[in-house]
Amino acid sequence: MASPRPRIESQELVHRTCPLCEAKCGISVEVDRSLQRIVTVRGDDGDAFSQGYLCPKAYGLKGLHEDPDRLRRPLRREGSSWREIGWEEAFELATRGLRSIRDAHGADAVATYLGNPNAHDVGSALYLPTFQRALGTRWRFSATSVDQLPKAMSSCLMFGSPGAFPIPDVDRTDFWLVLGANPLVSNGSLMTAPDMPRRLAQLRARGGRLVVVDPRHTETARIADQHLFIRPGTDAFFLFALVHVLFAEGLLALGRLAGFTRGVDEVRAMAADFSPEAVAPITGIAPESLRGLARAFARAPRAACYGRIGTCTQEFGTLASWLVDVVNTLTGNLDRVGGVLWPRPATSPADERPRRRGRIPYARWRSRVRGLPEFAGELPVAALAEDIDSAAETERIRALVTVAGNPVLSTPNGARLAKALSSLEFMVSIDIYLNETTRFADLVLPPTGPLEHANYDLVFHSLSVRNHTKWSPAVFDPPADSKHQWQILLELAAGMSGTTAKALDDLLLGHLLSATVGAPQTACPELSPDEARRKLGASPGPDRVIDLMLRAGPFGDRFRDDAPGLSLAKLKAQPHGVDLGPMEPRLPMMLATESGEIELAHPLLRADTERLRGALAERRKAPAMLLIGRRHLRSNNTWMHNLPSLAKGPERCTLLVHPDDAKRIGLSDGGRARVKSRVGSIEAPVVVTPEMMPGVVSLPHGFGHDCEGMRLEVARTRPGVNSNLLADERLLDVLSGNAVLNGIPVDVSVAG
Q1: What is the mean pLDDT of each run of 10 residues along the chain (752 residues)?
Q2: Most buried pick, 23, 92, 281, 746, via CB within 10 A?
């Protein structure tokens, strides 16, 4: 082994977590303080969770920090050009523009769109609710409804909370069934699991079995014990057939779950029509293969069924997401070691008291044009364009605030949305880039970069395959004239509510204190809120909020400085993080349903099953070609295409086509194809490969960097094509409103 390269005196290592995807790998950033430059980024061998593993995305952090296209000061539109302005002027313009729309047309004339990078920033996670309450609008959209909305809804219906995602215990399972996911590339999704290659190798080494069901022979499928091609959008049929076999062959084994599970008989009746023979012409999976899989899963000592974005972004996404957990429940693998479990984050409530939910947060209001249902406070983003360009004049959206999002590239029918954005009366974007979406804004407010502020992974600790906690310090001091995202959100909220940022920050802390200390059923009943506030300090921002949550959490020190347990100060003294042990069973105490039990057959799911049953005959005749997406290890969000270390290498925005389809259509490897849907058409280079299921083609998401008015010079040199120009905003999972981004009917022909 080569000896480590010596560091010169001005260089130091800063240990933190990579913020670029859900895996949350520990990194060691080598910094030259004399030049204020990053020397290199490497895996942190001492990290308590990732143990030195690092994927290529982390190397993009150097390029992101140094990117000349990254915005550092607010930009104001002046005609077709932009001018840098100061923060005081920027906040005044933003407040005046938003308030004028709200005062003239009501709060719901203003909308918000949140991109998924917000989940990677503790400031956003804590302060976005304050900002949205200050706006007062119900017209809230986010990337959730082009991603995991069906899983959030099914989790809410079954377990009582939209965030109660059961996580595969991949480190201890004997049988892992993976649908619509490619964990070797994603390192988990709604499952934080760095170094998936090692975890899967260990699964195989202990005699475990990996089965992948996917329309593409993915990187994960290549190492699996079994891969089954499935026609896109038919996972709910397939999973119902698995359930059918479990009942028909007496393979149910709920075990202790039987004592707090309702609806087993209803599910038996719901599955009756979905035999393997009935669904085979729809899914493309032979009945004997499906029966064998059901038997093997049920008889495995410990098994986990896992579905991800492919099972969510389809016509029956909520049913498919629900059925994943039905399979886990009926076989006794829900809340079982080696099955699927719930993590226990260090910032979660210390007690396990049930928190019962009354009415499900669903359809309390609806979008203006199609009447799409709200869920958990958000509307489906497929309604955004039409509620701008087609709603009644007195109801339409007139102003928009986007926060770390690029919906023109990431949501359905991007061409229509781009046109709609250009018609808005006012638009503000909080973003580090002038991209395909923010180019339409009147004002762009750039926060500090991810290495210029500290972070705590509030969201992803609750999705982790192993309980752990870590604080990520800033690598660089922020520039003098800069704002963190939480500061921007608070200033805008203050302007909209007529108060100060400090007052709003103190109010948030006060609410949390009243729920955490000083009352009989709180974590620290003997401690007064005033004493807790004194111990937390007066500095505003996320630090003291996280300190409160840690100290009052299940592993906390309860504000006793000399006691064992976590506080933020103690966590900061552990630069590689703290391992908190494996996941453990948490049912029934954590259930938040009204009944306090697992609701296996909620009326909404029973009703949607009738829609699925009605499609049994209709789906037997599949469209000629179906389009699916795919992800690459070097790409997660659209802006990553502007980082040289991630954008280099072979062309990745290619159309994958099976050889039989290529021959029938007349396509050649390296040639170009035209792909057309109801809403648009694109041309893309062709890769002919047997890894695709016949009748299915694949394009990656997030490309299409050829628009006028953006500043993404590296991305512009290899623009690719926007696959969501083909995504039809009319195609939805009816129950949740999630967009269909997999299984889009298309025509494919030779370009030109």
Answers
A1: 55 94 95 91 95 93 96 96 97 98 97 96 97 98 97 97 96 98 91 96 96 98 98 97 98 98 98 97 97 98 97 97 98 98 94 72 97 98 98 96 97 96 98 98 98 96 96 96 97 97 96 93 92 95 97 96 94 97 96 94 98 88 86 87 92 97 97 97 98 97 93 95 95 97 96 88
A2: 23
**Residue 196: which residues within 8 A CB-CB, separation 6 or more?**
23, 183, 184, 186, 187, 188
- Tokens 């009605």 sit at which residue? 614
d(CA 537, CA 529) in angstroms, rounded, equals 12
DSSP-assigned letter for residue 108: G
Distance CA 153, CA 149 (A): 6
**How many CB atoms lie under 10 A from the CB of residue 581?**
10
Tokens of 519: 């009352």
| Integer Cα distance of 233 and 317 in angstroms | 8
Instruction: Give the per-residue SS3 of 133-181.
Output: HHHCCCCEEEHHHHCCHHHHHHHHHHHCCCCCCCEECCCCCCEEEEECC
My answer on whether 737 and 658 are in the same domain is: yes
Distance CA 569, CA 467 (A): 19
Q: Quote the CA–CA distance of 245 and 239 in Å, as a whole number.
A: 10
One-letter amino acid at 451 equals: L
Q: Percentages helix, strand, coil for the chain, rounded to the nearest 5?
A: 35, 20, 45
Residue in 293, 285, 288 with CA at minimum distance from that of residue 230:
285
Predicted local confidence at residue 618, as pLDDT? 82
* Angle of CA points 634, 638, 640, to nearest 5°: 45
Q: What is the pLDDT of residue 270?
A: 98
Summarize pLDDT for 196-253 with one digit per residue, the tens.
999 999 999 999 999 999 999 999 999 999 999 999 999 999 999 999 999 999 999 9
Q: How many domains does the chain have?
A: 3
Q: How far apart are CA 551 and CA 544, in angstroms?
A: 10
* Strands 37-43 and 681-688, bridge-based pairing: unpaired
Q: Tokens for 326, please give them.
A: 């039905």
Q: Domain containing 679: what range?
A: 623-750
Contact 504, 560 (CB under 8 A): no
Choose the final residue of a domain: 445, 464, 482.
Answer: 445
Question: What pLDDT, on the 0 to 100 scale, is given for residue 622?
Answer: 65
Choose among 75, 119, 194: nearest CA to 443: 75
Looking at the structure, tell me whether residues 92 and 207 fall in a common domain.
no
The verdict on residue 424 lying in a domain is yes
Q: Which of 545, 164, 523 is nearest to 344 (CA)?
A: 164
d(C-alpha 171, C-alpha 192), whole Å: 12
Q: Give start and end residues of each alpha helix (H) in 341-444.
A: 384-389, 407-410, 414-421
- In whole angstroms, what is the distance from residue 389 CA to residue 709 CA? 22
Neighbouring C-beta atoms of residue 435, cutoff 10 Å:
26
Rounded Cα distance between 156 and 105, Å, is 34
578, 611, 644 - which closes a domain: 611
Return d(Cα 329, Cα 698) in angstroms, integer. 33
From residue 750, how far is each of 80, 628, 727, 744 by CA, in Å? 38, 19, 20, 19
Residues 168, 286: one domain? yes
Q: CA angle, corner 575, sides to 574 and 580, nearest 5? A: 50
CA distances from 715 to 139, 576, 643 (A): 32, 34, 8
